[in-house]
Amino acid sequence: MTASGAGGHLDGHGTRLRGLGALVSGAGSSGEFLGTGAATAVLFAAQGAVTGVLDVSPERAAATCHLIERQGGTGIALTADIADQESVRAAVEKFVAAAGRLDVVVNNTGVTTGEWDQVFAVNAKGAMLVSEAAHPHLVRSPAASVVNVSSIAAIRGFGAGAYAASKGAVLALTTDHAYRWGPDGIRVNCLVPGHLNTPIGSQGGAGARETRRRANLLGTEGTAWDLAWAALFLAGPESRWITGAILPVDAGTTMATGLGMFGRLTQQ
Ligand SMILES: NC(=O)c1ccc[n+]([C@@H]2O[C@H](COP(=O)([O-])OP(=O)(O)OC[C@H]3O[C@@H](n4cnc5c(N)ncnc54)[C@H](O)[C@@H]3O)[C@@H](O)[C@H]2O)c1
């Protein structure tokens, strides 16, 4: 892959999603510094999926599609506010009309700031709306998979307010949809990203970036590609017997106590 981020040295091309239609929400981008949705969309397309790039910004959706095409893949730009049911339904139908099928959904959209109701409308209700709009198509797929994206802010205190609570709702949504849709053959799992270096997680400059790197057990920086490869596993056939799983992608950040990390964070 040529876009920036760890994993840039890996060859993301393959056939693990060949013949499938995948839709990734919040997959827009601007420039080469990719968020997790954009990286996931680029990787899925490189693995053979016709990939829907859904974003509230048409320019950002088009930019990711451009990256996909540069890699030789097929991306379909979709503009929708995922908090709006009609807009979501139209985007899903547009994707199915173009791709002919829908097998994989990644509910990646997330906003960290805003009024409580708006944060919930995007992060929690938005994921529900996309999954529910996709459901009639997913039931027809022999390889149906939904990958939700929560946050470690949902399971560890971070002072993130509505963001934390809305991401907790994404965990509960995962459990509920996995239960309800298991008999339909639809797997529903959830990724729980840690402090990745992405546009959302990059605030605070070089000092904050270094602190985030040291705040996990490996002491290495995570990027959008780390989330994308985990999403590929949950989307693809290798995880065929996994549903309802909550998978941290955080280099062990949530495995340590504050006291346990104190020495590592304060050493010069
Ligand atoms: N980066 C981190 O450190 C981190 C940590 C934990 C969880 N996450 C989660 O990962 C996901 C992606 O983070 P990122 O850093 O890649 O974000 P990002 O800002 O790069 O991408 C989010 C995208 O969502 C789009 N969007 C915003 N509101 C929308 C709406 N109403 N409808 C449709 N699209 C909308 C934006 O235009 C943007 O392109 C989020 O769910 C975030 O909560 C990130």
TrEMBL record:
InterPro entries hit by this protein: NAD(P)-bd_dom_sf, Sc_DH/Rdtase_CS, SDR_fam
Originating species: Nocardia flavorosea
GO-annotated molecular function: oxidoreductase activity
Keyword line: Oxidoreductase
Entry similarity comment: Belongs to the short-chain dehydrogenases/reductases (SDR) family.
Pfam families attached to this UniProt entry: adh_short_C2 (PF13561)
Protein name: SDR family oxidoreductase
Domain of life: Bacteria
PROSITE patterns: ADH_SHORT (PS00061)
Keyword Oxidoreductase part of the UniProt annotation: yes
Signal peptide: none
